Amino acid sequence: MTSTMVARVERKRIAQLVSHGKRLDGRGPTDYRELQLEVGVIERAEGSARVRLGKSEVMVGIKIETGEPFSDVPNEGVLTVNAELVPLASPTFEPGPPNEDSIELARIVDRGIRESKAIDLPKLCVVPRKKVFVVFVDIYVLNHDGNLIDASAIASLAALINTKMFNYEVEEGEIKKKPGYTQLPIKNHPIAVTFAKIDGTLITDPWLEEEHVMDARLTMTTGKDGKICAIQKGGYGYFTVQQILEAAKIAKEKGEELRKLVVKG
Amino acid sequence: MSQKNPEKLIDKNGIRMDGRKLDEVRPPKIEVGVLGNADGSAYIEQGKNKILAAVYGPKELHPKHLAFPDRALLHCRYHMAPFSVEERKSPIPSRREIELSKVIREALEPSVFVEYYPRTSVDIFIEVLQADGGTRCAGITVASLALADAGIPMRDLVAACAAGKVEGKLVLDLTDTEDKAGEADLPIALMPNLNAITLLQMDGQLTPDEFEQAVNLALNGCKQVYALQKETLKTKYVTVKEEGEE
After folding, report:
1. Comparing C-alpha atoms, which of A50, A25, A16, A24 is closest to residue A35?
2. Fewer Cβ within 10 Å of end Cβ, chain A: N or C?
3. Among candidate residues B107, B102, B71, the one with its CA nearest the CA of residue A4
């Protein structure tokens, strides 16, 4: 937003490259930056992951607590996703309550996990209507170099797969811890693929320079069965039907590719 | 009918609880110029949805450092009245409302010639008085009319409609009940003359084939809504002209 004037010059250069199937950092239109993934990086969290997508860096910690279920789904655990655009991650991030960008980021990741039924929430019910497990997914952006959505979605999935819950038994409605841990029940592996539209051309995994000049943004999340489970358009531009259908195809292919990097074995 | 068999939303003839076919939109009732103070305003009733939209501007922006040197700043607030839903909703904007305000703004901005009004702001307020599924779409439809009513130069009207999947079937314009019980919801906003999709969201699960069909279904819905939007504006314009001639 601060760089509207710079963007004019920059935009022309990036758009010219993109129209020839090239990019400033040498990638092809649908290439992702290098993905580095570490899990179990925070011992105090039930699950955690740190993802580096190029220079973008996101950490996700999973905390599990007990709480009350929602009245419309009394037999299911609760999923809560929150995102913090931590001020140390970018000169444009400011401290304070979540703004619309961080709320949107969290809700896109939330939708992917929720709608693909990635977590087996019915298994997290302790006492129907009274007590269930609440899974807190906290996204912590550490360095912003574009495409925080995909980095956050990957880090969240990796952290959930990494999550271990203590064993327990229920005695008179109370939870009694037992020795040992089990994996959080995971049923699906949603992967978000984000596109930037620059002068009518779609590219995946936009980095910051490209995000500054893009017309519009589109995120499509697919599950491991290839079904689309969440979509979000962002930005002040628009898409044509052809572009959307093309994006759906690429999102499925790229999703499979990325899934292999995140879900080992 | 629905009382007897509440878990069935579509009967064997493909008729929905409110008597609609699968590919039918709830016919919207729209009015423009409904509020005294606003520069532009409109009201829509669609199913049990009752939504008001008002536009103020272009006007001077405070604080000034937020202004763009080359275009107007669009500001949008989507808000639900506490009494608009079954269980009272706190009037404090929820995370959902903040997200919707953002995507609605981004759905409307491509239609506005913002570059005509540098350093100003255009405020769009959408108040959902009663909600019955598809409020973001109806909100966009009505807000676009309020922008037109305010006389703000636009490339096209934005019309919105959702498609979705209910009981295994693709349907158009889901009600609240259908949305809650359904398997997928896909709201789309379109500038029909430019074939430009300005809002696209989805939750639920759709195969790529179903997705393509649902997109086309929703686009058809948008075009039906668009016809009504234009009709409403024309009706109003003609009445104003006649009054002027008398």
Report:
1. A50
2. C
3. B71
Contact state of A238 with B191 under an 8 Å Cβ cutoff? yes
Report if residue A213 sits inside a domain: yes
Integer-rounded Cα radius of gyration of chain A? 20
What CATH code is carried by the domain that includes residue A221?
A: 3.30.230.70
Residue A167: both structure tokens together:
């064993």
The answer to whether the Cβ–Cβ distance between B211 and A228 falls below 8 Å is yes
Check CB contact of B108 with chain A, cutoff 8 Å: no
Q: Does A100 touch chain B (CB under 8 A)?
A: yes
Nearest chain B alpha carbon to A248:
B208
Residue of A218, A214, A210, A222 lying closest to A242 (CA atoms): A218
The count of domains in chain A is 1
- Does B157 touch chain A if contact means CB atoms closer than 8 Å? no
pLDDT band at B3 (very low <50, low <70, confident <90, very high): very low
Fold of the domain spanning B29-240 = Ribosomal Protein S5; domain 2 (3.30.230)
Which residue in this structure is represented by tokens 């729209």? Answer: B30
Residue A265 has pLDDT above 70, yes or no: no
CB contact under 8 A, A233 and B205: no
pTM of the predicted model as reported, rounded to 2 decimal places = 0.91
Supply the range of the domain harboring residue A236. Answer: 14-262
Residue A152 covered by a domain? yes
Burial of A216 (0-12, 13-18, 19+ CB in 10 A): buried
Compute the radius of gyration of chain B from its Cα atoms. 18
Residues A140-156 have pLDDT tens digits of 999 999 999 999 999 99
- In this structure, which long-range contacts are made by residues A180-187, counting pairs with CB atoms below 8 Å and at least 24 apart in sequence? A184/A46, A184/A47, A184/A62, A184/A64, A184/A119, A184/A135, A184/A160, A185/A119, A185/A120, A185/A123, A185/A124, A186/A118, A186/A119, A186/A120, A186/A160, A186/A161, A187/A117, A187/A118, A187/A119, A187/A120
pLDDT single digits (tens) B183-201: 999 999 999 999 999 999 9
A165 and B CB contact within 8 Å? no
Pick from B125, B193, B202: nearest CA to B159:
B193
Task: Tell me how close the Cα of B13 comes to any Cα of chain A, in angstroms.
Answer: 28
**Any B CB within 8 A of A116 CB:** yes
Within a domain: A4: no
Give a yes or no: residue A105 inside a domain.
yes
Which single residue is written with the structure tokens 């949008």? B76
Q: From CA A41, how far away is CA A48, in angstroms rounded?
A: 6
Give pLDDT, residue A6: 63
Q: Which residues in chain A touch residue B194, judged by CB atoms under 8 angstroms apart? A: 238
